[in-house]
Structure formats: C-alpha cells, structure tokens
Fold each of these.
Amino acid sequence: HDVFAVIFNSHHNKGMGAYNIYCDESCHLENDGKDVMVLGAVWCPQDSKQTIFKEIRAIKKKHGLAKNFEVKWTKVSPAKVDFYKDLVRYFFENDNLHFRAVVAINRNKLNHKAFNQDHDTWYYKMFFLMLRVIFAPENTYRIFLDIKDTCSADKVNQLHKVLCNDKWDFNREAIQTVQAISSREVELIQLADLLIGALSYTNRNEKSSQGKLQLIDYIRKLGGCSLTKTTLEKEEKFNTFVWDPQEIN
C-alpha cells in the first residue's frame, strides 16, 4: 500500500498536547556507499524541553564537560563511555523522552525505477514512515531537523508538505512547523544522533570501537531491545522499524 495513504493513529499520546520532535539522519545520501540508512527522532512534550536541556547539561557538568559540549556518536570512546552511559540511562528513566527510528537496510537493492520514484521521493517516504507512529490527530507538533549540507530550505519545505499531505492537516494546525536548526545548540538532536549512531553501527555490524560496543550493550540492556529487529508499533520508549526493500519487491 502507498505509505502516504496511512491514516495517522495514536499509540503513544494520551490526550491533547503539544510536542517537539528532534530529528537526525545517518547515511542518507544516495551515493554515499553505505548500505544502511537510519532516520530517527527524539520527542518530548514542549513544556518539558527546558528542564530536559538543563538536566542533560548537568550530566555534562558532572563528567567535567562544558555545557556546550556536543554529544555525538562519532565522539563515543572508552574515555567518555561513562558519560554516554549516564546520558543513555537518563533517556530511559525520563518518561517524557521517546525515540523512534527507521533503519533502512540493503540499500543496494533499492529499485527506484520500479516504484516510479527518485531517491529524494524515497527519502521523504522513509521520513514519513519514521514519524507517522508519533503523530496523533489531537496533538500539535513542531519538528526540528539538524542543519547539514543537504538540509536545504527546499528539503525542509518539501518534508513539511509531505507530512501534511494526508488530507488531515491542510492548514498545518497539527504539524505547525518543520525547521532546520543547529544541533550544536540543541541537546535533543544530539541525543537523536547518539541513538541512531548506535543503530547504524549495530546494523552495519561494525566492531572497531570498544567504547561504542560497550554503549550498544548498555542500550540493549536498558531498553530490552536487539537494535536489529522491528519493535512493536506501540512500543513507547525505544521504537524501531527495520525496512528492507526486498519486502516490497
């Protein structure tokens, strides 16, 4: 079925509310040579974001890091693994924080021609697939993307259009904004980078960093998840969908 025809339903949200969704992506370029793409989002109630930012900065301070230290998967090392474990534990213990990701595997098997699409169209479909289980019609959302070289105004506008295109949000009352911001200033985009990094590393079966492998084991232990399998769609904390092009050929 056409992914755009999916009717948004609510598994996560109880009652009306305003939410912020912080998105990041890994290995999303068409010719980057990577066989796994991960799109992910950390989301929380708008009225809890300032407290969350403050508490994450306190974790940085506890470990002797500057409050503007940028959390990144690529920075995970044995020397900093205790800091990153504390951050992961904070995520799992905070009821206001949730994570959802789509892991697109076997990208070398993509056949855009068969589906009358180009890479960008497929990318937007994947982004929609990632976000759709977060959305509930009674809530409002503001979506933030990390500014990258590829994150042009056109891309942001197109994504907003695609997300509102399901005939239920013509006036953009539900998905109020989609905007690109710098991850250096936003702890929750950094947290999304960390969690999708773990998914990407695991699904590419990389083994080169002991620090990263320790953190992956810790995420598996706290989340009770494999990182390589699709979770139940109603999973509220660490929700993953593994997408394989073979399934729809």
Amino acid sequence: MVKRITMLLLLLIFFSFSIEGLYAAESTARIPELIQGLKGWDRDATRAAYDKLYKIGKPAVPYLIKVLKDEDPGLRSQAARLLGDLQAEEAVIPLGELINDPKSWVTRSAVFSLGNIGSPAAVPILKKALKHYKPKVQEAALISLDELQDKSALPDITELMVASNDQYLRWQAMMVLRSIEKGSEITTLIKTLDDKKAKVTSRRNAVVMLGELKAESAIPSLIKALDDKDAGIRWGAVEAIGKMGVIQARPKVKEMLKDKNLDVRMFAIGTLGRLGSKDSVTALSRMLSSKPSEVRKNAIRSLGKIGGAEAVKAIREKLADSDRYVKVLAIETLVNLNDTDSAAEIRLLASDRSPTVRTVVMYALGRLGGDSALDVLQAGTEDKNFWVKGEAERSLKKLQQK
C-alpha cells in the first residue's frame, strides 16, 4: 500500500513538471507573437501582451533586446520599458545605444529602464543622457541616477544644476545632488557664486537657488555679492537676502537704492519692505519721488509692509501723484493699514477723471468710513461708469449695515 502511494506521488510530480515544462515551452514559442502584440494603438491589447511577456520573464529578454533595433519606435520604446521592468542587466549596453535614438521619447524610456535595472554599468550612459538636447530625457537621467546613488555622477549633476537654462531641471538636479550627498548642493552653489571665473549665468542661477533654499551658510557670500559687477547677481543677492531676512545686511541694501540698475533698485526696495524695519522708512520715502512709476509703486508696497505713522504720512502724499495707478495703490495701501484719518483726503479723489481711481475711492470709503463718506458714496451711485457705480452701491450698503 505504501509503495503504491509513493508511486502515485512520483507520477503526480512527474506529470506536474511535464505540464509546467510544456507550458513554459509553449509560452516561449509565443514570445515573437506577443512582441508583435506590443504594436498598435489598442492599449488593452498592448497591455495584455506586455503583461504576458513580463510573466514569461527572462526567456523573453534576448528577443526584446533584438527588438530595440526595430524600425517601429513604439515597439522600441515598449521593449525598452519591459527590459527595465525585468531588470535585465544584459540589456544595459543595448539600451545605452538608444541614447542617440531619433525619437527622444524612446530614449527617455531607455533611460528610465537603466535606472530600474540598477546596474553600475549604466552610470556612464546616464551621464551622457544628462547632456541630451531634450529636458525630458535629462530629467529621466536625473531620476535614474538618483536610483543608483552613484557619487561618481556628482560633477555632472552639479553642472546641470548651475548651468541648465531650464529652471525645473536645475531644481531637480539640486534635489538629486542633495539625495546622493546631503549638503553638497549648498557647498557647490556657494562655491559657484564665489567663483568670479565661473560663467555669469551659472553664478546668477546659484544666487537665486541659495535664496530659495534659505541657506544661512551662504549669507557672507550673498552680502559680498551685493558689490558684484553683474547686475543680475546683485539683484539676485538682494532678493535672497530679503527671503532669508538677513537683518545685518539692511544698511548695505539701503545703499543699493542708488544702484545704477533699475532692477537692482526695485529688488532693494522690496527687500527693505520684507526686512520690515522702521529705520528704512526715510530711505524708502525718498524713492517716492523717483521718475519711474514702478519704483514709486514698489516703494508704497514696502512702506505698507513696514507701517507706522511716518510710512503712512509718506504714502498719503502719493494721493496726488500724476500716475493713476500710483494713486490707486496708495489708496489701497492706506485701507490695508486701516488709516481712517486719510478718508478725508481720499474723498477728494471721488471726482478724479480716471474711473479706476474713482472705483477704488468708493471701495476705500466703504472700509474707512468718515462723516462725509455716505454723501460721497450716494453721489457715486449716480456715476456714469458701471464699475464706479457698482462699488459705490456695495460700499454704501456696507456702511448702512454697521
């Protein structure tokens, strides 16, 4: 009885292996057919073929490598992706040859697959992909290098971080650099900013990124950069100092209000507003007499951020500005500062020739009130301009409900 059971078990095992072998042989025979099924626009059909090939696994790899040279770009891309999912290390070199594929999206698939495979042999290929003419391929290379965590790629990633024309790519490179070696991104950016022999564009990129990262270790370099001969680096340093709230740089930033470059002056005004010191009110008030209206508006914004009696007094004077948009901004800022004392001066602009100014006057009186606000708003409801009339009606209703 025992012998009979043993024999039955052996027969079952034999047949099991036989059936499995037959299934494997049948599956292998279907590989060429399934590969052809990767073509076409029927997503369900191509997905089904893809899944079956993935299930077959390693036996499909030689066939897929051969297909990487097929004339159909869609098939090349699918084969590249599948080789990555199968983590076929023997496909690294063939996939690398797709770096020069005429279709960049095929190259992108190959680059992602190299990251999935995870072989150190892919690193030189991925470095080459970092210099590809398509940002999407460069991005894929960064992601794959992040997967591999290979420090030999740091110089190439660094170059992309400071030199790329694509802001998103620069940031992506910075994140990968940080992932591979934390802290190296800050050190590299500071070194680039300090290097007067580096490309101006790279130094400009570095100063902007240091501001975004709010890197405190970069403060000495940022203050030094305020004297740089390049205006782009100067305004980048001023903006970074504002974002980081570097109070000790305030005296130097005040000096930048006299910079010959308009952009530098504009950023200096904005930074003084961010730093928020009443010591800056006098210097900012002087900027209200600048010829460019954008400078005057920026000075009003910064004075509004700082606040206080002196700032309010300076802003009130711009209610008589020749530029309607400067007047509008002055009114809005006084409302934000809740300067109820300015209501009497603002009401005098209710007859301004600009409907934009009149509209903002109606808005302001509805918030600041005042003894004569109701009369002015009532008159505003008869204004010929649709926007002035509408704002007067809303503000009048607001005051009457109080």
Amino acid sequence: MASNKTSGAAALRYATALVDIASDSGKIDAVEKDLNDFEAMLATSDDLWNMVRSPLISRQDKQEAVQAIAKKAKFQDITSNFLALLAQNRRLSMVVAIMNSARMDISRRRGEIKANVQSAFALSPAQEKALQESLTKAMGQTVAVNVQVQEDLIGGMVVTVGSQMIDDSVKRKLERLKIAMKSRANTNVATDEKAAG
C-alpha cells in the first residue's frame, strides 16, 4: 500500500513540474495535446507499451526511444525533454499516472470540471465536442470530457461528473427491464396464489 502511495505522490510531483513549465512557457495547450497523442500511441502499440513498462531495457535505450518518438510526432521540446527525464530517472513506467495527474492539474487551473464518459463506441471529434458543449451548458461551468470505450455497455453511455452519474447505457436499460419483468412476474405469482386461495 505504501509503495502505491509513494508512486502516486511521485506521479503528482512530476505532473505538477511539467504543468508549471508548460504554463510558464505559454505552451500548456500544446503540451496537453502531446500527452493525449502519446497516450493514444501507448493504447495502440504493444511494443511501445512493453518498452515503457519493461525493467530490462536500459535507461539510455528508453531515453533514445522516447526522444525519437517525440521527434517523429513533432512534440514540443518540453514534452520531449520531460519523457527523456522520466526515462533517465526510471519513472517512464509511471507515465500514464503522470499524464492523468497532469491533465487533472491543467483542468483545475482552467477552472474546468472533469466528466468521465464511458461509451459503447468511440466518439468522433464532432460528437465529443457536442457532448462537451451540452455538459458545459447543463453544469453552468466548463466541463472537460474524458471518453473511454467500454464495449460491454452495448450502446449508449455512462457520464460521471463529480458525484453525479447519468447512466444511459443499453446495458443498464436491459438491467432495469429485467428487474421490472422479474417484479411483475412475482406480482403475477402472488396474484395467482391469492386467486387460487
């Protein structure tokens, strides 16, 4: 448990340092885009994910690999240097936790509130923008949307903003229907028994 707390605190420290530098340089939006792009790369490349996590790959090799990726993806120097620093300090395996902390810090500094959206399918940029705008309007405050695909929802989505949850998934609707049918069946059984008695 202590090691989880320690790694969480370290992730927060690295994230805060990155956001401070990005903010001071006036490049917070560009760095945020780099982080989103790097996370998308991790999600789609097993090789990259394994390289980031592997304790068998040397610091030097990891550093060179992330710098090459950053150069090819045209990341900001801040992002490239930051990823290299993580590799040098043997913290690259924490990069996902660090990126999540950094995004939360960026949202907080902008005065945004975070909405976690679980969707049965990937949203197009236009759909994500429309969702973000409607949530912003509903909450009366800027809402930053974080969308994750969860196919077992079958259709629809689950939106969580703070302590509020809107579950408009097909899975949940089917569960409600099942409960309603079960209670109706129980009522019918009770009615039949009453009639028989």
Amino acid sequence: MLTLSKRQPDPGQPAGSRGWKQAREAFERFAANPAALVSAIVMLVLIVVAFVGPAIAPYDPVKIGTGPRLHPPSGQFLMGTDQFGRDILSRVLYGTRLTLQASLIAVVVAAGIGIPLGLMAGYSGKAVDGVISRFIDILLSFPGILLALIVVAILGTGLGRVQIAVGISLIPAYARLVRGSVMSAKENLYVEAARSGGCSTFRIATRHILPNIFVPLLVLSTTAIGWAIIIATSINFIGLGVHPPTPEWGADLGAARSYLGVAWWPGTFPGLAIVVSILAVNLIGDGLQNALDPRLKGKGAYDR
C-alpha cells in the first residue's frame, strides 16, 4: 500500500519554510530523473497543442479532398493524407484536445466517485465497508475496457458518454487505494487526537486523513490518465465513441486499419500519438512517486 513519507519537523524552522523546503527537494528529485523530466516536457507540449492545435493546424481536419487520397508524407502534407484526402497532421493536432479532454474528465469522474466511496468504506465501519467493498468487487470482476463497453452499451455512443464510461471503469482503483490508506491512517495518533477533540467523522476523514494520502492519490491520478487514454481510444477505435468525421486518435486509427497494407501513415501517426502520451504520463507518475516518497523508489504506481 502506498503511504506518505513522514519526517520529524524541525522545531526551529517555521512550518511554511519546511513546506517550501520539502517541495523544493521533491522537485529536485523529480528533475534528477531524466525519463520523468522529458516526459513532463512532452506532456506539457501535448497540453499546449490541445489548446492551440486549431490555430496551428495547416488545414481543416474534416475537409474532404484537401489533397490527393492517401498521399504519403511530403513537404506540403507533413504526415500525409488519409483515405478521404484529409490532412493527417491537422487531424492529429485537433485530436489531441479531444483525447486529453476525454481522459482528464474520466479521471475526474473516477476520483469524484471513488474517493468518497473509499473514505466511507475505510472509516464508517464494517457494515458500510461490506456493502461498498462488495460493489467494488463486482466492478473489479470486469476488465476495465469491458466495463466501459457495458456502460457505453447502456448509455449510448458519443464523446460525453465515453468519458462517463471510462470514469466508471476507473472507480475501483481509487476506491481500493483510498480504503486501504484510510484503514491504515485512522489508527494514527493525530486521528485519535482529533477524535478526542470532538471532531466529527466527516471532518476527520476530509481534513485529517485525506490530506495525508495525497501522494498516492496524485500518483494514481497521473497514471490513471494513461489508462483512461487507452480505454477511451479503444472505444473510439471500434466506432462506439465519437462520430465521424470528428478527429480523434483512436477513431482515426480505427478508420485507417483497412488501408495499412497500402499506406502506413494514416494509422502510424495517430498510433504514435497514443503511445507517446501514455508512456509520458506513466513515466511522470513513476517520477512523482519517487520524488514525493523516496522510500518507494523503483516501485510502480500501482504496486501496493
């Protein structure tokens, strides 16, 4: 189980100074990890592209006949054109926003539901814990992509429904992490002191326990973005997500699979975008974990 690294405070040093010193040390450890630092730069570039992509795209991403059909990469079309003569570079740039948006919203949905469930399961007693744990076990009995497909089948297709479906598939990861962390943290002395001081259960859970499991939650949220990208692009790949001609990495990869034998570029560049983004967020998660809790150096974000 992931835990927060604790240090004995220096009584001669102000609390604010200790906080800034620890933050600076964590940043220095993160920056000393080349893979994590490069991944952070890559992710920053992707975020910038998500905002400014429409402004820098050379062509309209949905316009048919922008160039010859299946034109290979050239000076005019840096990534070539697809089976409809649309510029692939423009579609990749536009698709960055939709793909990152879908994954971020899915993680917010998962955290917004999974964290309260984990808090209630870990702190409210055996009866509530039993009900929530059985619910989480039911969700865990389905692979993430299958659970998301079931939700899409119930709600219907569309970008918004895909975001909800992916978020639901990630709920068990948050609920299990928070539950285990809360059950460990609630036995600490600071919780006993808060309980003796008359703090309510809600205040203890949200003001005393939750901030002390921030590190594992941050690491999980980072790596969960990678899982969300995988699941969301997979749903779009099989045609149950965004509707054509919306530019999206998974949908474009799915549309190009029939042409891979005669043209490698329509599927290669969206696929590379997916691989690079997933690799970047996972390396960032490992780097954050090692920087914020050096005792866990070398362990994966989901190792518990």
